[in-house]
Design brief:
Layout (H helix, E strand, L loop, with lengths): L12 H24 L6 E6 L5 E6 L5 H16 L17 H36 L5 H27 L6
Antiparallel strand pairs: 1-2
Helix pairs in contact: 1-2, 1-3, 2-3, 3-4
Length: 171
């Protein structure tokens, strides 16, 4: 493995704001679940067909997994974003470009972390509402839009990094 510079990055105000929002969203989802717990039927919809109709059922305790599903990517991305020098990059890493390259990659990870926490927490709230009202609402379209946003973030940052740092060969 090539030797890459190890640089300790400081958090930007945007990254601090995203961290605070992530924590608020996770805690808010947990509080919402606890507040609505008594109103939930013992059997709730846990899976939906493409049409939005419930096609899988389970115990309301299944809802306890939803905050964990939001917390897991938060914790994982928080840990791995501390080691940008170990990432695979689509361009060569040099002493000159490492600080900006690492910053952009960590920034992308922070956006992805926020998007995933928001998506999974929102889906948790939608499932709770579906269980109490009997209407699935827009769970399917919300999931698709969330996936498109996440993929858009990844492709957008990778495209920017490649364009910004690719080495041009001269003939």
């Amino acid at each position: 493995m090539e030797q890459r510079p190890v640089i300790r990055l400081t958090r930007s105000p945007l990254e601090v704001c995203l961290e605070v929002l992530n924590i608020v969203i996770i805690i808010g989802t947990l509080v919402y679940l606890l507040i609505r717990w008594r109103d939930l039927p013992s059997t709730i919809p846990i899976h939906y067909a493409g049409s939005g109709e419930a096609d899988g059922w389970g115990s309301r305790s299944t809802l306890l997994l939803l905050p964990l599903i939001a917390i897991a990517p938060y914790v994982l991305i928080t840990i791995i974003s501390r080691f940008p020098h170990t990432f695979n990059f689509p361009v060569a890493v040099t002493e000159q470009n490492a600080p900006e390259l690492y910053r952009l990659t960590v920034q992308m990870l922070n956006w992805l972390k926020f998007e995933m926490v928001f998506l999974f927490s929102s889906l948790g709230v939608l499932v709770i509402r579906s269980a109490t009202t009997g209407h699935a609402g827009s769970i399917g379209i919300f999931t698709i839009i969330g996936a498109i946003v996440i993929l858009g973030t990844i492709f957008g940052y990778v495209f920017h990094i490649v364009r910004r740092f690719r080495t041009r060969t001269t003939s």
